[in-house]
Amino acid sequence: MLSIKVLLLGALAQCAWALVSDVPGLNGPIPVVPDTQGSKTRPSDFIHPGLWHSHSDLETMRNNVLGNVEPWKSTYQAFSYDSFSQSSYAMRGPFAVISRGGISNYTSFQADTRAAYHNAIMWYITKDDAHWKRSTTILDAWGSNLTNIIGTDRSLMIGLDGDLFVNAAEIMRWEGGWVEQGAKWQGGSGFSIQLYWLFARQSVIIGQANYGIVSIKALLSFAIYLDDVAMYNYALYAYKNDLCAGIESTIDSSTGQSSESGRDQSHSMTGLGWLALAARVVNNQGYNLFTYANNLLLKGSEYTAKYNLNGTVPYDPKFYRCEAVLVNGPWSKISTDQRGIQKQVWDILHYSAVANKLQNPWTLKAKQATDALGGERRVTANDMPSWGDLFFATKG
Ligand SMILES: *[C@@H]1O[C@H](CO)[C@@H](O)[C@H](O)[C@H]1NC(C)=O
Ligand SMILES: *[C@@H]1O[C@H](CO)[C@@H](O)[C@H](O)[C@H]1NC(C)=O
Ligand SMILES: *[C@@H]1O[C@H](CO)[C@@H](O)[C@H](O)[C@H]1NC(C)=O
Fold first, then answer.
1. In whole angstroms, what is the distance from residue 328 CA to residue 320 CA?
2. 230 C-beta closer than 6 A to ligand 3
3. pLDDT tens digits for 200-241?
4. What is the residue with the minimal CA distance to atom 9 of ligand 2?
5. Which ligand number lies closest to the CA of residue 96?
6. Which key words are in the record (predicted)?
7. Going by CA atoms, what residue is nearest to atom 13 of ligand 1?
8. Helix H segments across 149-288?
9. Is the Cβ atom of 108 under 6 angstroms away from ligand 1?
């Protein structure tokens, strides 16, 4: 008798877990923001595919790979041998509940989203159906099984791995004709329901410094996939104006200093990479954020590249991030912690400057120093997409 009860309870619990539930309580409505340049007014204003890669970006990538043009050719060669790029990649998930950190199947989500994205790019370049299947089966499996993301680092995880995932979905949907499994108007399961409730709604609370930037850049991607005008305008406005995560609160407009320059160099670099991804997405929607506020992002890139190449830069101890106290700040001096150009952010920053015909001497030097070490190739986490000479390369 007892065992039957337990079985029944188990079955009921499984049913409950099979639905994305319980999330709306975490966040209220998307705040209404003032109109800002680049805002959308209706869903049909969105351009698809239009996150990290527009249709013409994808064509440029494919044509240069097939035409053996550098740097696409050799980067693609390495990319195509990467384990995440294989159509035979063995999926590690899906799981029902994940969180960032040791407790929780996080690395399987991290790996599977990476593989879904790599296979989407591989499919676009090769048009091999096996890649189409691998990418979309990963999207559908997680899309219909994942019911909750928990823990304090959830918005960070969503902003990184979730953004990679939606980039795979955008390519497969708009270029590959993928129709996701399981989505019904009654709710329930399916990629876009997961995207809306688990990823997008939980990113609406924008945190401070990089924590906030990651949500802003991911919200832009999510909003475009979902054709959500209010969400997009909210994230765009935050990129410009948020007092703890917007570009003017994270990069000093007079010098280019990062609000985390005193903390360590790795956070300073990562923030620049995420702002650059946001700017790329918005650029694909027809508005230039890269040159926003007198090329402020480039100014930040030049400052941090110079310092990490052992150059001397001015430092203002009064320019620091919100909640600095949480991370042992504010800081009286610029930090030498993790000094060096190790972060994979320079390709996108350099190529964005080139596309805008802007001089970027230190950013270029940082890119060249990265290239001398083998280029943006070693994928160990999803902080950045990596493979910048394939994904973001442009000819002036
Ligand atoms: C991963 O998820 C499965 C099923 O949801 C669970 O049984 C397993 O314990 C989880 N692993 C970790 C490390 O939490
Ligand atoms: C869950 O994932 C598996 C693949 O592991 C898939 O076969 C299944 O259709 C997914 N969805 C549900 C609701 O189980
Ligand atoms: C900067 O200085 C460090 C320590 O002296 C050195 O290891 C590193 O190679 C230098 N970097 C560059 C780009 O010169």
1. 12
2. no
3. 988 999 999 999 999 999 999 999 999 999 999 999 999 999
4. 141
5. 1
6. Lyase, Signal
7. 104
8. 154-157, 163-174, 191-194, 201-203, 209-226, 229-241, 247-250, 265-284
9. no
What SS3 state is found at 127?
coil
Q: Is the pTM of this model over 0.90?
A: yes
Q: Are 387 and 79 in contact (CB under 8 A)?
A: yes
Find tokens 């350099």 and name the residue.
Answer: 350
- Indicate whether residue 369 lines ligand 3 (CB < 6 A): yes
Centroid of ligand 2 to alpha carbon of 305 (angstroms): 45
User: Residue type for 37, please?
Assistant: Q
Which ligand gives the minimal distance to the CA of 340?
3
The residue ranges of every structural domain in the chain are 70-203, 244-396
Which residues make Cβ contacts (< 8 Å) with residue 179, sequence separation at least 6?
Answer: 173
The answer to whether 184 and 242 are in contact (CB under 8 A) is no
Q: How far is the CA of 104 from the centre of ligand 1 (A)?
A: 6
Atom 4 of ligand 3: nearest residue by CA position = 310
**Structure tokens given for 112:** 């599977």
Amino acid at 35: D
